[in-house]
Amino acid sequence: MNESVQESRSIDHFFSAPSGRTDLWRDLHAAARSWASGTKNRRAVEAALTELGVSEEFHAFPGADLLAALRGLLQNDDANGFLSLAKRISIAIITGNYKHDAKEWQAADLSLAEPVDIVPASAADGVSRPYFEMLTVTPAPLGRWPHIAAEFRRLRRSEDAFVYEAVLVGSLEDAICAAVVNPDIAAVAIYEGFTLRSRHDAPVLRSVLAAQQPLLDQVDEADLALRLAAGLKAIRPELDIYLLSDRRVEKLAGDPRAAMVRRVMYQIEEPLELHLSVLEGIQARFETPFFDNLKRYAQRPIATFHALPIARGKSVFRSPWIRDMGQFYGINLFLAESSATTGGLDSLLEPTGNIKRAQEMAARAFGADHVFFVTNGTSTSNKMVLQALIAPGDIVILDRNCHKSHHYGLVLSGAQPFYVEAFPMVEFSMYGAVPLRTIKKALLDLKAEGRLDRVKMVDLTNCTFDGHIYNTRRVMEECLAIKPDLIFLWDEAWFGFARWSPFLRPRTGMGAAADIEAWAKTPEALAQHERQVAELGASPSLEKLLDTRLVPDPRAIRLRVYQTNSTHKSMSAIRQGSMVLVRDVEFHRVEAQFHEAVFTHASTSPNQQLIASLDVARRQMELEGYGLVMNAIEVALDIRREVNSHPVIAKYFSIVGADGMVPSEYRRSGFVDFLAPGTRWDDQLRSMREDEFCLDPTRMTLVCGTAGFDGTSFKGLLASQYNIQVNKTSRNSVLLQSNINNTRSDVALLISVLLKISESIETRLKQGGDSERKAFNAKVQSLMKDVPDLPNFSHFHETFRQDAGDTTPEGDIRSAFFGAYNEEQCEYVPIDSAECDRRLKDGPDMVSANFVIPYPPGFPIMVPGQVVTHETITFMRKLDVKEIHGYEKARGLKLLKVDRVGGKKSGGQETARKKTRAT
Ligand SMILES: *Cc1c(COP(=O)(O)O)cnc(C)c1O
């Protein structure tokens, strides 16, 4: 294939490395069939074989022997022999059978081949052992590679818990490529003495390496091994790395950079030592302390005298009335139920045993200092974090459009919310994310008011429901330049999986925190900061500060980052399984508060199965997360491409590209969309690195208004008639999401359904004539064009702003919230009434008594204490959704009579004032 063709399909080509590979093998199989049946000649097969290219070297299977056998059959003009072997290999790759069937590894002529003992003995229960590949970077000459791989194979023992094959490469470049394209690689053995440059010059190699340019620029041959280790860890932090050297191993081991190497060894040491270490490394990730113990616990005969009749299942299986529940869930669910914290089950509220260890392992996996398992969803995680860190009167800057758990968390903690607005996407009736400029302005305004010391936290959703990803690093750096001890809460409910993609990871809270920490340690950091201080001068204007990319003082910053993940939303955890990830240099100071917050919100009867699933979800991601996430991204790119390019579907439906989701001012890299013509995947990388917002490819806004459906009815149609469930809706779109469980068959199903629907519209329009077309166009027009303006947050009523800055908009949401508990202080005004219009015009102000949250769009258009404006009422009147939380149509808006509430000051504020004075 020539270079330009290779380049032109780069983005999806890259993300689809695994399935792209199966496609190439399918093509080879097809070409072989044509050759054998005489419809095509040998040349087609040769071409297909060349297409497979150098990247086959980065996989253990089929390996050099089988490939040589294929080439041999080709040279001998043995079309049938070739077909049979090509077929076998391609099926083995597609099914993954080679991972547990030794026969697949044998060459064409079984009688001649030395049998390859891939699975010397299957485990006692007949289940084959998990298979992985070990990347082996070696200076040995090419001719020795098969022997080296065979040597590792000979080390296998029947008692090994896992089985692996070695993948051999000879250079840093090849090693990086192999780690990128082969998700089965789980361990790396680096033998010193290998070269920097690949012996290949293949475009695929170059395009993978382009992203690693910084790594390749600092050429210092002496350090190659450690540099490779660092490079691999930057791409896939979960990999175990073993460094084999024939010199100064003690010295190497003492190098601080060797911290990322699991073990440094002498090259001449027993290979068995390496073999055992590699298996032990996998075991360390495979282990699930809580789940393992729960399984043991379930096997023990235990008589229970605690309050959980369902434990052991006797109340279920003995009952003639509810036995079906037992049959449905199976006995293990009941054997694994317990209210005990004995028997090694540990206590989620005060973990000291295997829950503690499970959390520590999760911290390692997710790149945090501490992880807390939460069994009541991220709704609870967010409230815990807010309660732990925020005291009454503290100011929190947050997206008004964030999940309601944040708003309620602020009510509970008595904080003063400073709402900031995301950029609106009026055409879809949804919001994007909050521009950094807005956040900086909030901080600088508070500073001007002399209230910066009151600001404790910036609280943002990353990524947003619709896929806007913040530049987390930049947000934190610039905010820390204004207030160096600010706390960040990144609600990454949807985004937990991002840790396992090298492209998305830097855009997570934890990923950015690690990068900032590393940056702050470099001498360049302080120089950058001092340069900027000099440039800005003594008193830079507000505009100047807003326009400058601020560099924090690396000596002053106190990095305090919290991230919450709904593990159940993107990984294999049971519903409500959530984690709080912590990277906070002051954590020791707030640990006691944090525990209080856990005690406040966590159930004293946490569900064992949930905890186990969090443990297991971590194991899965550490062992196969990289490949799974790559697959989820690939599925998303497939859907994007198919919908937008299909001749019939694309007439009625479209998936909004990055250019439609992120306004160009926040997309300075010029990136248009993943699959836009001429886009290469390094453009995508640049966008992810530089742009203020980028789009998560796995979150797809499918516009259905152009097919005459509003979001809610389209969602209903897909669910009721086609068994397809989608995520949230907007006025004229639905949100599709791919995740780690999707396959290409799901893509095929979705596309076939969209095609059916599109075709039925076509038929209807054809048969219905002019009137039908007119009605259709009117519907589309109404859905796509007559969209109500989104109402911004207006302001808190003065009653709730007595403790606020003169020019800044924060307010006391808690007093307003509890003010509504006294019915005498409340009144109701229907939004369609004349009174409503009169009040808007002549007053007195209407002040919302509670949160009003319509679904969709799902953000509070009113919060307690907020003055109701024309904008909000107009939006509500136009809103054609049925579900509005906090609004009873029959009674009208619930409002506060502020003259009755006004007299009293809340206790919370008094405390806050005293607190401020005291400190
Ligand atoms: C779903 C969600 C939550 C709440 O998480 P649960 O696990 O459902 O409790 C919080 N924040 C955001 C952004 C969410 O999408």
Strand ordering within the main sheet: 6-15-14-13-11-7-8
| Shape annotation | globular
- Arithmetic mean of pLDDT: 89
Bound molecules: pyridoxal-5'-phosphate
Q: What helical percentage do the residues reach?
A: 40-55%
- Return the CATH topology of the largest domain: Aspartate Aminotransferase, domain 2
What distance separates the N and C termini? 69 Å
Extract low-pLDDT stretches. 1-11, 110-115, 119-124, 903-919
Number of strands: 23
Over all CA atoms, what is the radius of gyration? 30 Å
Give the class from helix and strand content and strand pairing: alpha/beta
Give the strand content: 5-15%
CATH-assigned homologous superfamily of the largest domain: Type I PLP-dependent aspartate aminotransferase-like (Major domain)
The CATH architecture category of the largest domain equals 3-Layer(aba) Sandwich
Question: What does the largest sheet look like?
Answer: 7 strands, mixed
How many structural domains are formed by the residues?
5
Number of helices: 38
Reading off the top of the CATH hierarchy, the class of the largest domain is best stated as Alpha Beta
